[in-house]
Design a protein that fits this description.
By secondary structure, the chain is mostly helical. It has one domain. Helix content is 85%, strand content 0%.
């Protein structure tokens, strides 16, 4: 045997040892991937009922939201009607009612003044200037 053949045999042996050393982690990695595949399948089986329940819940929520949209539309219509009625009332009766209220307030205030100015506590008629809010006697 020549030196080249011996070197080739040593290189081949080193390659076999290298392949043997690399085979162990590759086998362990293959087992890990098999376990991960099984876990994914199990999770997929367990998730199907969960997704179907979520789908049912979402369907029911959508039905309730459609009902709520109808109720909201009715409430908006009622709000619009009340707003229109308020505007109509203000336009037709608001001004005259304010005038009547002002007139009745003025008349009642004048009647109170007239009644209180007729006689004081001693029975005599008051004379002099009217008292203002800030004046004291």
């Amino acid at each position: 045997m020549s030196a080249g053949q011996i070197a080739a045999l040593i290189a081949a042996g080193a390659f076999v040892v290298l392949v043997g050393l690399l085979a162990v982690p590759l086998i362990k990695l293959g087992r890990t991937l098999d376990e991960a595949t099984l876990a994914i399948r199990k999770a997929s089986k367990d998730a199907d009922p969960l997704f179907s329940g979520a789908n049912t819940t979402v369907t029911q929520v959508n039905a309730q939201l459609e009902r709520l949209d109808g109720i909201t539309a009715n409430a908006q219509a009622v709000t619009g009607n009340v707003s229109a009625l308020t505007s109509l009332f203000t336009a037709t009766l608001g001004g005259p009612l304010v005038r009547v209220a002002a007139l009745s307030y003025g008349v009642s205030k004048a009647m109170r003044r007239r009644k209180s100015s007729k006689d004081d506590a001693s029975g005599r008629r008051r004379r002099g200037r009217r008292r203002r809010n800030g004046d004291k006697r």
